[in-house]
Amino acid sequence: MGVTAFAAPEARGDHDDDRRGHDRVWHDRGQYDFDAHDFGAHGFGAHGRNAVASFLSGKGGSADRCVAAYYCSAITSIAAFAKSVTTLRVGLIAAVLATTGPAAATALTPWSGGPRVEFTLENMAGGRAQLSEFRHRIVLLHFFATWCEPCRAEMASLQNLFERHAGRPLAIVAVNVAEVKPRVERFLAANPVSFPVLLDSDRTVARAWRVAALPTTIILDAQSVPVLIAEGDVDWGHPDIDAKIKELLAKELLAKSDP
């Protein structure tokens, strides 16, 4: 299991032809605005340093792994521009980026990010979709990007989950974060899914839901209240995960059967 740091495309060195204009706008607008919000200016905050220390000690979980990689991606990008990174930081970056040990399996944990944030986004057909449309169903709100390696594999797992629970009050809503539509279309042509995919082109929704890593999945109950979150890719076929989904579905079906 793993997570991909939610870094700006230029920090990843991603310069596909259909993204250059979008990446440049992102950079000009403030490439590290997300870092500054969560980790201090340019990602050099205490949160990032603590996550790196925890990750290198072997005590950190998938969230620490994600923050550590995000922190170091910012450092490497700044080093490329300023050419002034210290020896300590170079060693730190190398240690984090060279670590190849398996990450701990991503678990569903209780949501603590506040109330639901309503949104309306463009769908792949060019129409508009609202979160409120999925009320009275268990909703898996899945944030992803096509460049995120764990996201690619998880799409197939989510599709299998969707098919297993066909006919039950379960909705999967995938939200692509900050990519141009043609890129997402190519991704879906190679990785087709039956559930809706929405476009959060300017990261407004990801920010509102406090998404700090990709993939991230937030589970809402049938009253559209966020109850669980997973930061990292999830094996949606794992017995423990499937049991949790079935438990939520059973509660909804029981509530519907009450007079």
Please specify the SSE layout and strand pairing.
Layout: E1 4-5, H1 9-12, H2 20-30, H3 33-39, H4 46-56, H5 62-82, H6 87-98, E2 109-110, E3 120-123, E4 128-130, E5 138-144, H7 149-164, E6 170-177, H8 181-190, E7 197-200, H9 204-208, E8 213-214, E9 216-220, E10 226-231, H10 239-257
Parallel strand pairs: 5-6, 6-7
Antiparallel strand pairs: 1-8, 2-10, 3-4, 3-7, 5-9, 9-10
Helix pairs in contact: 4-5, 5-6
Short key terms for the protein model shown above:
259 residues; 2 domains; two-stranded antiparallel ribbon; Glutaredoxin; alpha+beta
Give the neighbour order of strands across the main sheet: 2-10-9-5-6-7-3-4
How would a textbook summarize the main sheet? 8 strands, mixed
Terminal residue distance:
43 Å
| String of helices and strands | EHHHHHHEEEEHEHEHEEEH
CATH superfamily of the largest domain: Glutaredoxin
Rg: 19 Å
Question: What is the third-level CATH name, the topology of the largest domain?
Answer: Glutaredoxin
Portion of residues in helices? 40-55%
Query: How many structural domains in the coordinates?
Result: 2
Report the principal-axis shape: globular
Unreliable spans are: 7-45, 70-103
E-strand count: 10
Tell me the name of the CATH class of the largest domain: Alpha Beta
Molecular structure report:
There is one protein chain. The protein has 259 residues and is an alpha+beta fold. The chain is 45% helix and 17% strand. It has helices at 9-12, 20-30, 33-39, 46-56, 62-82, 87-98, 149-164, 181-190, 204-208, 239-257; strands spanning 4-5, 109-110, 120-123, 128-130, 138-144, 170-177, 197-200, 213-214, 216-220, 226-231. Strands 2-10-9-5-6-7-3-4 form an eight-stranded mixed β-sheet. A two-stranded antiparallel ribbon has the order 1-8. It is globular, with a radius of gyration of 19 Å.
